[in-house]
Amino acid sequence: MKESHILNIETLGKTFSTSNGGSIEALRHVDLDVDENEFLCIVGPSGCGKSTLLRIVAGLEQMTKGRILRRGLEITGAHRDVGMVFQEYSLLPWRNVLDNVALGPEFAGAPKKARRETALACLRLVGMESFSRAFPHELSGGMRQRVAIARALANNPDILLMDEPFGALDAHTRILMQKELLRVWEAHRKTILFVTHGVDEAIYLADRILVMSARPGRIIDIFNVDMPRPRRRSDPVYGQLAEKILNLLEKEAALSFGG
Amino acid sequence: MIIPALFLICWHVAARQVQNEVILPGIGQVAGLLRHPAQDLISMGSLAANVGISLVRVLAGYLLAVMLAVPLGIVMGYYRPVFKLLNGFLSLFRPIPPLAWVPLVLAWFGVASLASVMKVESGPSYIFLNNLKFSMIFIIFIGAFYPVLTSSIHGVANVRRILLDSAHVLGAGRRDIFRKILLPAAAPSIVNGMRIGLGVAWMCLVSAEMLPGSLSGVGYLITHAYTMANTDIVIAGMISIGLVGAGLDLVFRLWEEKKFAWTRMAR
Q1: Spatial separation of the C-alpha atoms in residues B155 and B150, rounded to whole Å
Q2: φ, ψ for residue A34, nearest 5 deg
Q3: What was the ipTM of the complex prediction?
Q4: Is B171 in contact with A86 (Cβ distance < 8 A)?
Q5: CATH number, residue B155
Q6: Best residue in B168, B169, B177, B183 for a mutation probing chain A (most A CBs within 10 Å)
Q7: If you compute the radius of gyration of chain A from its CA atoms, what whole number of angstroms results?
Q8: Cβ of residue B179 closer than 8 Å to a chain A Cβ
Q9: Taking the domains of chain A in order of start, what are their residue ranges?
Q10: Average pLDDT over residues B66-91
């Protein structure tokens, strides 16, 4: 283990047993080291187990093989230092924005005043402080996800897992959210593991892009994105990289489509 | 307002035609009884006093049912094995109408009341406690138990998985999950079940108050008035049951509207 690695995933495997007694192998032999402060995107054909990988790192799912070390310590369950943002809207509908964002500190037993201050600071970071009294159903999809990001940040995690967080948003909002996320990441410098099936999104955001195979999911390639931010989609490097990754994914998609 | 008015007109016309107050007394006669609820009727106490004692009985059986069914329903809704363990057994009793329990309940409890357990044998508290027969409370309990249980199970089992997942990731412990996620998320369904349960409990009232040893309550007032051919009292009693039942329902609906506005919006 190198000192700068915040996460070591070692020969990770995951097999689900199905209700009719069969089993599905979702992940096979995944090896990955994640650097401190890195923005890592994971792309792959649908059903390749990329969400499962994230859920295992979050401690929501048990692995069947291998292990994961976070700062050298094995991950055994959900932990406050690992935050997660989901694709589905996950705010509690009966709580207003502020009380939603204050959930993490509340679970940690922080006094009311302190957790409100933390929540407000995180809301300010995502530009949502003026909506602190609003309820989730009063917000647009993009706003809800900004609040969800603020909620994850309120625990001050050192790893932020994002499972297609902008997948349910329209194309225009998605691009704004990507910019917003980069701004937040540059201010906070968390390590981010970001699952997406948008190659364009991955290239726009990531330091490294990890490409996964069709099921059972394995890592088939890793690309470094050596472009200064903010990245322009008209940059020729952008297009070349996108083409490489898309070709790779197309092959995988054909594989999973055929069999 | 048109339908109730039409109904009253029909009643009035029919009563005129029948000309027999045992079969159908006039509106005025019944309204007179309702206007003076504190007046003593066929030496059984007033309408108001009898409705009051009925209400206390219903609330006793109902609260017992809620206190048992809500926690049980939450646990059954959350823990699949507990659900599997208990559901089959509980389902056997669900279809049995509360009234069918009467013979068994009488064999078990007879005319025992809270007074006989608490060893109170005289005074005003005796009269009050002796009105709370175990057999009645049991019948009302059975009536209210299942609606509350079913909706509690349903409410908890249908909490969106994503809410639980995100709470886990945010560091929620088991207590937090129950108190801050499951309970509020299931609350609209639980309260809805409590509303239905209270309605059923109230409906079990007449059957409960027909049990031996009963000497008060609207249910008893109605049956007793029937044997004395005082149909006006029967109808006045029925109307008060209806009014109180609708009133309780309204209280619940206002509560739901105020507390759970988010359920309508959060679609």
Answers
A1: 8
A2: -115, 130
A3: 0.90
A4: no
A5: 1.10.3720.10
A6: B169
A7: 18
A8: no
A9: 1-76+191-259
A10: 93
Q: Is residue B254 part of a domain?
A: yes
Closest in B169, B184, B263 to A58, CB measured: B169
Task: Render B199-247 in DSSP notation, one character per residue.
Answer: HHHHHTHHHHHTSTT---SHHHHHHHHHHTT-HHHHHHHHHHHHHHHHH
Segments of chain A with pLDDT less than 70: 1-3, 256-259
Q: Are B147 and B197 in contact (CB under 8 A)?
A: yes
Instruction: Establish if B65 belongs to a structural domain.
Output: yes
> Does the pLDDT at position B42 exceed 80?
no
Kindly state the DSSP code that residue B46 receives in the 8-state scheme. Answer: B
Task: Reply yes or no on domain A1-76+191-259 having CATH 3.40.50.300.
Answer: yes
Does B262 sit within 8 Å of A137, measured CB to CB? yes
Say if pTM beats, i.e. exceeds, 0.90: no
Crossing angle between the packed helical segments B231-259 and B218-227, to the nearest 10 degrees: 160
Question: Which of B170, B177, B181 should one mutate to test binding to chain A, selecting the residue with the greatest count of A CBs within 10 A?
Answer: B170
Q: Could you list the residue range(s) of the whole structural domain that residue B138 is in?
A: 38-265
- Type of residue found at B260: F
Residues of A in contact with B180 (CB under 8 A): 103, 106-107
- DSSP-derived pairing of the beta strands A82-85 and A5-17: unpaired
Q: How far from chain centre, in Å, is Cα B68?
A: 15
